[in-house]
Amino acid sequence: QVQLVESGGGLVQTGGSLRLSCAASGRTFSNYVMGWFRQVPGKEREFVAAINWSGGAAFYPTFYADSVRGRFTISRDNAKNTMYLQMNSLKPEDTAVYYCAADPRADPRGSAYQYWGRGTQVTVSS
């Protein structure tokens, strides 16, 4: 059974940092696109960041929403089947439930991922 489990959310003050983790199990995700999305009540889920598989290259292509570029960093550790999102300089508008997702060939910025976690709450106080 495939599972994605997010962790690392919490309450932080404006300007603070958090690191989210997404632990995958049930299969190997080393050649999957993996992404982070977020959602606030009453709004649609929005893309935050994604990381593709390397395809044999020495790096993993990454993608960011304009609103987080320069503040958030996505990474993956295939040996641990885990993806991370380092969030720095957090703002109140970053408050949301953050979800991780995985798919073998999704558009990294799209939402058509096959596997989703249940989410972790991030709250940034002003």
Helix content: under 10%
Characterize the biggest β-sheet. Answer: 7 strands, mixed
The overall strand count is 11
Unreliable stretches, pLDDT < 50, 5 or more residues?
none
Task: Note the topology.
Blueprint: E1 3-7, E2 10-13, E3 18-25, E4 33-39, E5 46-51, E6 62-64, E7 72-77, E8 82-87, E9 96-103, E10 115-116, E11 120-125
Parallel strand pairs: 2-11
Antiparallel strand pairs: 1-3, 3-8, 4-5, 4-9, 5-6, 7-8, 9-10, 9-11
Top keywords for this entry?
126 residues, mainly beta, seven-stranded mixed beta sheet, four-stranded antiparallel beta sheet, 48% strand
Task: Describe the fold and architecture.
- The chain is an all-beta fold and 126 residues long.
- 0% of the residues lie in helices and 48% in strands.
- It is built from no helices and eleven strands.
- It has strands at residues 3-7, 10-13, 18-25, 33-39, 46-51, 62-64, 72-77, 82-87, 96-103, 115-116, 120-125.
- Strands 2, 4, 5, 6, 9, 10 and 11 form a seven-stranded mixed sheet that branches. A four-stranded antiparallel sheet has the order 1-3-8-7, with no helix packed on it.
- The model has no long low-confidence stretch (mean pLDDT 94).
Short description:
It is built from no helices and 11 strands. The chain has 126 residues and is an all-beta fold. A hairpin with a 4-residue loop joins β7 and β8.
